[in-house]
Specification:
Layout (H helix, E strand, L loop, with lengths): L17 E6 L10 H19 L3 E8 L4 H10 L3 H18 L6 E4 L7 H13 L3 E11 L4 E3 L17 E10 L5 H9 L4 E3 L1 H12 L5 E2 L1 E3 H4 L4 E3 L2 E6 L2 H4 L2 H4 L7 H7 L4 E5 L3 H15 L6 E5 L2 E3 L2 E2 L10 H8 L1 H10 L7 E3 L1 H31 L11 H22 L3 H22 L1 H7 L1 H22 L4 H10 L38
Parallel strand pairs: 1-2, 1-12, 2-3, 7-13, 12-13, 14-16
Antiparallel strand pairs: 4-5, 4-6, 6-8, 9-11, 10-11, 14-15
Helix pairs in contact: 2-3, 4-11, 5-6, 6-11, 12-13, 13-14, 14-16, 14-18, 15-16, 15-18, 16-18, 17-18, 18-19
Length: 525
């Protein structure tokens, strides 16, 4: 796994040169599902592009362990909550590495050393602002959401997200004074000082705020939680719960309460990447808590949709649960990454089909990008002894292709700036297709003897295009592009290159490429 190597180099004052991004902190009551894979890949693609843009990049992920979900899952399995969390946190961390999530920090919310002190520090700051108070409460509690719901939010008496009847709970909890921040939150989100993407989610959040914000519970009794979780300061009868605990992972992952200089270096987060089911907690609860604590707000809340399977919502009862760990083992991480970024719209729900994954990989990823790379490198090896030839004066076709490369670079940069990952991929994909068309049109296998100068031009431009494509595709299919970089005979890592150098002819005449290997193998179900 490639981690961002220069995270320690950026200075605190160089805010424009750093980029901090997070995934949501997933519940680990069960193994990862395909939705986790989507979020990990989207987050990683954004992070890798920011690294290419020259920013020092830090990525935080982790495991949300202090929840009723985990307590009940452990009871069902006949193990301790700590044992279940240890097992599942390891599975999530291994999966994150397997799929290529280049995280710098993996926060476990059960850590008494690195996480608990930060949670209690945030609590005390909000308490000192007069925003935490204790009261008895009776309400409908959804364990899946780990939140109390209003009756008006239910659909046919069920939680709209988890399709289950909430439990009626009555106990004394601590509450956070969310209502105090209603006007301030509305102004921040409406003005895009806190951007919520896409606009459909922004409208939903604003509508929810305008309907009237109510204070929310931030603790649970020791009895109900079986004592599992972060104790409330100065009240051993209460456990700090879920959102006040889990969201703080974004802070403790970069040194909150442990290393003040490191924390100031990275906060505020540039982007939180989350699923649509937890938009309210990240776009309303979280910024209110930060305002109360006197901390800067994140800049963007990026909300993705859900993954369906052949048009149907994933459900254990339907038997259509997709195991992303199996997919990575069967087809490879890059193939799954390619499908999730190219086939599924960045912000909307998208469908997963194993048959479609195989079809698209064979016809597009292999047939386009992989095919162009193989044609160029194999021709160089067979006819130029793997040495890049000296070009003649570049002609119109070569200049046109270089101009296309320049335009592609700007299209990709603009798409990433809007977080339109699929558009960025498509632009890179179209450039590979243009390279294939150019190679086919120039027919170097014919001009090798008929017009060797023209053949040299073709191979010189083509190998430079391959080099640029290796960089452009690296955030999407990082393992294959790292292998390609090695085949091209370059030192270092493709992930350390500069995006600004993409349209420069960096592969010089006389450069020798390395041993060839197929980047992708044809797939079968």
């Amino acid at each position: 796994m490639v981690k961002f190597k220069n995270v320690k180099d950026v200075k605190t004052e160089d805010a424009k040169k750093r980029f901090y991004i997070t995934t949501a902190i997933p519940y680990i009551n069960a193994p990862p599902h395909i939705g986790h894979a989507l979020e990990f890949v989207q987050t990683d693609v954004i992070a890798r592009f920011q690294q290419l843009f020259g920013k020092s990049t830090f990525l935080t992920t982790g495991a949300d362990e202090n929840s009723l979900k985990n307590i009940r899952a452990a009871e069902e399995q006949g193990v301790s909550t700590q044992a279940l969390c240890n097992t599942n946190a390891a599975i999530f961390k291994d999966f994150a590495e397997e799929i290529g999530l280049s995280f710098n920090s993996f926060v476990r919310s059960s850590s008494k050393q690195s996480h608990w002190p930060g949670v209690q520090k945030l609590w005390k700051l909000c308490e000192s602002s007069g925003d935490i108070y204790k009261k008895k409460y009776k309400g409908l509690y959804c364990v899946g959401c780990e939140a109390f719901l209003k009756e008006s939010e239910l659909v046919d008496g069920l939680c709209p997200e988890h399709k289950k009847k909430p439990e009626l709970v009555e106990e004394e909890n601590y509450f956070f004074r969310l209502s105090k921040y209603q006007k301030q939150l509305e102004k921040l989100i409406k003005s895009d000082k806190l951007r919520v993407l896409p606009k459909t989610r922004k409208r939903e959040v604003l509508a929810f705020i305008k309907s009237g914000l109510e204070d929310f519970s931030i603790s649970r009794s020791v009895e109900r939680t079986k004592g599992w979780g972060v104790p409330a300061p100065e009240d051993q009868s209460q456990i700090i719960y879920v959102w006040f605990d889990a969201l703080t992972c974004y802070l403790t992952g970069i040194g909150w309460s442990a290393d003040d200089n490191e924390f100031k270096k990275w906060w505020p987060a540039d982007v939180h990447v989350i699923g649509k089911g937890i938009t309210r907690f990240h776009a309303i609860y979280w910024p209110a808590m930060l305002l109360s604590a006197g901390l800067p707000l994140p800049k963007v809340v990026f909300v993705h949709g859900y993954v369906t399977v052949e048009g149907r919502k994933i459900s254990k009862s339907l038997g259509n649960v997709i195991d992303p760990l199996w997919l990575v083992k069967e087809y490879g991480a890059d193939v799954l990454r390619y499908y999730l970024t190219n086939e599924i719209s960045t912000f909307d729900d998208g469908d997963f089909s194993e048959a479609r994954l195989v079809e698209k990989t064979n016809n597009e990823l292999i047939g386009n990008f992989g095919n162009f790379v193989f044609r160029v490198l194999s021709f160089l090896k067979a006819n130029f002894n793997s040495v890049v030839p000296e070009p003649d004066t570049l002609k119109k076709e070569e200049k046109d292709l270089l101009e296309t490369l320049k335009k592609t670079k700007e299209k990709v940069r603009a798409a990433i700036g809007k977080f339109e990952l699929r558009d960025a991929f498509q632009s890179a994909f179209e450039l590979a297709a243009a390279g294939n068309r150019y190679f086919q049109k120039k027919k170097p296998w014919e001009t090798l003897k008929q017009n060797p100068e023209d053949c040299a031009n073709t191979l010189y431009i083509a190998i430079n295009l391959v080099q640029s494509l290796a960089v452009l595709f690296s955030p999407f299919v990082p393992h294959a592009c790292e292998q390609l970089w090695e085949q091209l005979g370059f030192e270092g890592s493709v992930h350390e290159q500069s995006f600004d150098d993409l349209d420069k002819l960096l592969v010089v005449p006389g450069h020798r490429i390395g041993d060839m290997k197929l980047l992708f193998k044809k797939l079968e179900i």
